[in-house]
Amino acid sequence: MAVPTGRSAGLSVRDVVVRYGVEGSRRRRAGIGTTAVAGVSLDVAAGEIVALLGPSGCGKSSLLRAVAGLEPLAHGSVAFDGANLAGVPVHRRGFGLLFQDGQLFPHRDVGRNVAYGLEVQGMPRPDREERVAELLDDVGLAGYARRAVVTLSGGERQRVALARALAPRPRLLLLDEPLSALDRQLRERLAVDVRDALRSTGTTAVFVTHDHTEAFTVADRVAVMDAGRVLQVDTPDLLRAEPASVRVAEFLGL
Ligand code: ADP
């Protein structure tokens, strides 16, 4: 059961710790294991896009997975619209997930991939088709509904995966390195298109990346992470103008 805490709209992460490899009471007492997230607090307002940026292994995915409910919290809390999500399973959080490989259904065409969540929700067919067309337009694939998934390029596949993730209007979309399997040029173009699609649909989102150009393109605010902690959270302009430490400046290539 989600318990109201009276906090504001959007996502609220408080003092979150994620540990791996500490199953069993002896190992836990001995503190054996990896602390992937070492006490992170972060707010994402309704309609805001926040990037988690940091080097490989700094805990970005672990934090995202903890928000999704895919990893247990060793400490701290995750709340949405003021309701604590402790004990709320992944599928009851109303969040969407998008990974590096969008994992489309190979036997469904593009339109039916995008429609999947709407079918699950029981949306009538005419409404579904209208919404699918709207979403394909949002991701720059107008007219692709009847295309077979196998005929798509890597970039097109991720666009379809984004449309599918947006279809059920998730109250929060969690994107884990969604562009990192694509080549550099395509990534830059797609980053702009992802930002535009998230903005035009008013989607609240957390976007994990190790690429500061991508983070600055997509996000309203960027949380710079290192070794399981958030070093600074600011708008791209503020981060560039006033990095809080040498480590942040280094990581941003300043
Ligand atoms: P990032 O997303 O920034 O690359 P991760 O959250 O994937 O970082 O990883 C953070 C740390 O946690 C790393 O040291 C990684 O090796 C470790 N880790 C991640 N997933 C697991 C797991 N399932 N079991 C054990 N250790 C893990």
Walkthrough of the structure:
The protein is an alpha/beta fold and 254 residues long. It has 9 helices and 11 strands. It has helices at residues 25-30, 60-68, 110-121, 125-138, 154-166, 184-200, 212-218, 236-241, 246-251, and strands at residues 3-4, 11-20, 34-44, 49-53, 75-80, 83-84, 95-98, 172-176, 205-209, 221-226, 229-234. The strands form 2 sheets. Strands 7-8-9-4-10-11 form a 6-stranded mixed β-sheet, sandwiched between helices. The radius of gyration is 19 Å and the shape is globular. Adenosine-5'-diphosphate binds at residues 20-21, 34, 36, 54, 56-62.
Give a nutshell description of this structure.
By secondary structure, the protein is α/β, with parallel strands linked by helices. It has 9 helices and 11 strands.
